[in-house]
Every structure is written in structure tokens, then in C-alpha cells.
Amino acid sequence: MLGTDITTQGGIGSVVRSYRDSGLFNRLNIRYLSTHRDGLKFDKFLFFIRQIPIICFAIFKVDLVHLQTSQGWSFRRLVFFYLISSAIRKKVIWHVHGSTFDNYYIKSSGIEKKLIRYALTNRSSVIALSNSWKERLQVIAPKSDIRVIRNGIILDKYRSVRKETHRPFVVTFLGRLGVRKGTYDLIHAIELLKDLNINFKLAGDGDIQKCSREILSRGLNDKVEIRTWLDPDSVVSVLKSSDLYVLPSYDEGLPMGILEAMASGLPIVSTNVGGIPEAVESGVNGLLIEPGDVKSLALSIQRYYSDIKLWHSASQASLERAESQFSMESVELSLRQLYSDLGSNLSQVG
């Protein structure tokens, strides 16, 4: 299995850590090798070059090659190893996490479009994170073998049951701060809610300084705490001390943050994009709005702040939904079946 370094910030890193920590690598005999890590551009390039001979040697020894990819350079790095794998007749799995993979395809040159279609179709299968993403990927590569395997989480790590909310009420956002994740919409919504006893925690990377200035200019610095990217243990701690998880994104795959929040017993306020509606049923374990609808975002947060019965019902529904649909056991069963279908005896997956 190839992808970004297991310590890397972001969704793929979080997914791969859950595979490792749950023991899935051992049980499915997966060897994980990194093609990318955080750092300066030159350091990233050197790391990739050093990994090429290691990965190429490993490819010859495995039954399958499983590629954890996003869009852009994530895909371009991995297509190099796809071509090598295909040349020696190894079957390949593309596990597509990119929240804007379809836009990446649309904006690509004619040659790159052909390469993307070829890679997703020839000697390969594709994993989509949701049914909606399966449909989007089928538009790009209609002849591709596409399976839906949702992300999973280690439930016991996050599980938290509470009968009361905190005062002040705590709303948490985790992820890359910026336009795509709807961070500025959230800041505008916070301004509408500033007279209520609600505190907000924003943690991640991206536009940290710009968001901090925006918060300060609106006089909200006593309402909002901004932190840099949290390590996995800190994520667990922050979620357990929160009452509501909010992610007003404009596009997504299937965000690990939402699944982690559900397993922590939090109602979710998010948007009707990507795979989110397959995790959050509006009116059951959360509320979904249209991207950019600041007023509805503020009203949705206020509903959970004001109505403890609604909050408790959604909290319980999040726990139940996480347990029934997003366990690592479900992920393992699906991967085991896919590997078997592709002819692997699970002796080694690269």
C-alpha cells in the first residue's frame, strides 16, 4: 500500500493511521510505504526520489498494489508506480480520497485526462468513499471497476456518552482553515451568535493567520480559540470536551473528522456535499445546510445550543450510526473481499 507518510496531516494520513492502529495491516498482510511527507518542497522531492527504488523493489514481491490518492500531485506521484505495476502485470487499486478529484480531472490537459482515464480503467479497480463519489468517478472512467468502501474509525478510541452539554456550549471545527472548508462562513455565523454562551474551537492548518485577523477584526477573539493541527490524542481530547461538530465545507470526500465526532457522540452541523449525507442524516444525527448559507449555519448551531432534547437525540444517533456503519471491522471485511476478488491470497499487499 502506497500513500502519504503515516504522520502527515490530513485525511489520508488519518485513514492510514486507523488501518495501522486497528491491526488491519497485520491481519491483511499489508506493507505500507510512503511516497510523500510534510516539509519543504525540496525535502519532499528528495524523499520521493529516495523512495523510488525501495518501492519499485517491493512492487515485484506483492500480489496487489493499493494506492491511497488525492488529486493533483498526489495522483501524479502515484501514477508513476501504477505504470510500473501495470507493466509487470500487477493489479492496482486506486483509493480515491480527493475532495475535488473531478475538478482536477476537468482542469487537466488532454494528455493528463487520457492518463487519468487509463489509470482508473486498465488493470485496476477503484475505491470510492461514498455512493455520490462513485457516480462522479464513473463520469470520468465509465468502464472502471468502482467499489464503495467508506472510511472507518476505531470506535473505542472516541466513544463518549454524556447526558448534558457544557456551559459555555463548545462548538468544534477541525481541518484546513480556508474557503473550501467554509471557515469564513463559520466566522460570519459566529458573529451572529456572539451574544449566546457559546465558545468555538478551530484547529488545523491553512489560513490560520488570515482567519485570526478576521476573528479579531469582528471582535470575536473572546469567543474563538484557534489552534494549529492537533495530534491524534489531542483530537480525542478536544472532541470529548465539545458539544457540537461543525464543518460547513463546499466539497468533501467522506471527512474523517465527522466520523470521529460521531463516535464521540457529537451532533453534526455540516453541508449537503460529497459523502457527508451518507454519514449525517439531517434531522437525525445532525443538520445539513447548503454551502455558503451563513444564516442557516448559525440557526443550526443555535438549535442544538437551545434544545437539550434535540441535542441528546442527535448525540445518541451519532454514536449508533458510527457503530453500525463506520467501524474498522466493516472496512476490513470490504477490503478482504476486494483483495480476494482481485486474486490475492493475502500473502502480501503492497
Automatic annotation (TrEMBL):
<dbReference type="Pfam" id="PF13439">
    <property type="entry name" value="Glyco_transf_4"/>
</dbReference>
<protein>
    <recommendedName>
        <fullName>Glycosyltransferase family 1 protein</fullName>
    </recommendedName>
</protein>
<keyword id="KW-0328">Glycosyltransferase</keyword>
<dbReference type="GO" id="GO:0016757">
    <property type="term" value="F:glycosyltransferase activity"/>
</dbReference>
<dbReference type="Pfam" id="PF00534">
    <property type="entry name" value="Glycos_transf_1"/>
</dbReference>
<feature type="domain" description="Glycosyltransferase subfamily 4-like N-terminal">
    <location>
        <begin position="42"/>
        <end position="156"/>
    </location>
</feature>
<keyword id="KW-0808">Transferase</keyword>
<feature type="domain" description="Glycosyl transferase family 1">
    <location>
        <begin position="159"/>
        <end position="317"/>
    </location>
</feature>
<dbReference type="GO" id="GO:1901135">
    <property type="term" value="P:carbohydrate derivative metabolic process"/>
</dbReference>
<comment type="similarity">
    <text>Belongs to the glycosyltransferase group 1 family. Glycosyltransferase 4 subfamily.</text>
</comment>
<dbReference type="InterPro" id="IPR001296">
    <property type="entry name" value="Glyco_trans_1"/>
</dbReference>
<dbReference type="InterPro" id="IPR028098">
    <property type="entry name" value="Glyco_trans_4-like_N"/>
</dbReference>
